From TrEMBL:
CDD domains: CuRO_1_2dMco_1
Protein name (Swiss-Prot/TrEMBL): Cell division protein FtsP
Plastocyanin-like domain residues: 20-128
Pfam families linked to this entry: Cu-oxidase_3 (PF07732)
Keyword Transmembrane helix annotated: no
Keywords annotated in UniProt: Cell cycle, Cell division, Copper, Metal-binding, Oxidoreductase
GO BP annotations listed: cell division
InterPro entries for this protein: Cu-oxidase-like_N (IPR011707), Cu-oxidase_fam (IPR045087), Cupredoxin (IPR008972)
Residues of the signal peptide: none
Encoding gene per record: ftsP_3
Species of provenance: Methylobacterium isbiliense
Amino acid sequence: MTADGWKEFHLVAEPVEREIAPGMVARLWGCNGQSPGPTIEAVEGDKVRIFVTNRLPEHTTVHWHGMLLPSGMDGVGGLSQPPIKPAETFAYEYVLRKSGTFMYHPHADETFQMAVGMMGSFVVHPKEPAFMRVDRDFVLLAGAYVPRVATMTDFNIWTWNSRAFPGRVCKNLLGSDEPAPPHSAQQESFAGSL
Ligand SMILES: [Cu+2]
């Protein structure tokens, strides 16, 4: 947190690889080396400043889906801001006015960028914990991928957090190639991967 009370976060938009299922490595776009991007967590009432650096080969933006914020921070390229060009950084600044589970994604070439995984979750915890008590909070982003874009297949790859459940656990967080552990342990790993 900065001296004047802003919570700062950094998102780096970039191409990533994600093993959707054992042996099925997808070339996706994401943030900070992963797709979906990291889950951002903060508290209702926080002032947040989120630096978005573009390391993609084309322009992008970040739209904060469902959040109440000034139009200039809404991340709609060509409407509420100029798109963030490759190698540029844009700072989004706003106050978190309501709690809930939200998502972020580009509004720039979104039919392509979202199709290749550019999205993440944003959890805003209520200021008053008694507002809605939870024991555990699991964040799951559902997705659908096709093996070859523009090729007709009779199936999609349906995913949670870009994993085809019950694929094995997240290798880069547990540092293991081991097969998926029993169900309850796998749920733990979901929480750990977020
Ligand atoms: Cu949206």
